[in-house]
């Protein structure tokens, strides 16, 4: 029987986060005492309705929206689907043109692929070797029949932040709805939907210390969109289903905390992230930083290592008590390399040797030091048994920076 590691460190906050005690405490009464359906008109229902609207306001305050523009959903995937399908197929449209990028989350890419069955055309804008979309390429891609531009705020794997404000300004000037998947950016990047000219924005509670299974889609007033779930007409008719009141309360509380603590939390995470980004290439030969060196989320450090498989690296780190990820944590079980890393210009072999370390508000410098202490030995051990270790280095390719 394998002994459990004495130390346990969680560095996978882009996959999910721990529900904060304040959030859990806020939610608990809505499971036990205040359990009414917010659509009911009696006192139990009115009580739930009031809590729901208070949560909606807290989410709106986080992104400078109006509470009436917040549609509660089951999370980022549903929000992305509602934004893309609901806009593209408004009033039964069966054709048109959508602009997106090659590194979007599957919750954006898959709905776009789905719409191709109905006659829509999709343009996937490529990114640079650091994961940045070319704004000029988006401008050139716009057509008379373009019905939507959807570009993520920040990438879920490599953390690169996109020029959302510029894209929003362009979309507004052209009269095209602009949607951004901000699931990874919320709580780590100030977002103002008004000044950034965002028409729709997706977010998910469990990425910033709220509960799983609840999220929201911001829909700017006047945006032409129709529901993809039909039924009782909840959420202004855009999302039928009895609302998850306890989850919404948790989402609201998490949003309130994210706004309150954003500046000190981000400063701390950035300092720890920079320490890793600078140290790992020095400590581990033939290691590279994926994504943009500075224009990236404050909590994201993404590396790749020649001669090893990322899955083996994750398992060895887990044996040491360190939880991290490789490729996309949302596509478990797939042997295919990350589409994001391939889009950077990496080969299949290079893309497979990746490690994503994502910090949270509770990580400490001691934990980062422990990772830096353990990582070189783990990589060295894996290289000793790698069939590629005797070959030439695979080289930096086009996926970022390195120190040999």
Question: Could you characterize what this model shows?
Answer:
This protein is α/β, with parallel strands linked by helices. The chain folds into two domains: 9-16 and 262-403, Aspartate Aminotransferase, domain 1 (Alpha-Beta Complex); 21-259, Aspartate Aminotransferase, domain 2, CATH 3.40.640. 38% of the residues lie in helices and 14% in strands. The protein is built from twelve helices and 13 strands. The strands form three sheets. It has a seven-stranded mixed β-sheet with strand order 2-8-7-6-5-3-4, with helices on both faces. A four-stranded antiparallel β-sheet has the order 12-10-9-13. Strands 1-11 form a two-stranded parallel sheet. Strand 3 (96-101), helix 5 and strand 4 form a beta-alpha-beta unit. Mean pLDDT is 93; it is low at 398-404.
Name some characteristics of this structure:
single chain; 404 residues; alpha/beta; Aspartate Aminotransferase, domain 1; Aspartate Aminotransferase, domain 2; 7-stranded mixed β-sheet; 4-stranded antiparallel β-sheet; 12 helices; 13 strands; 38% helix; globular; disordered C terminus
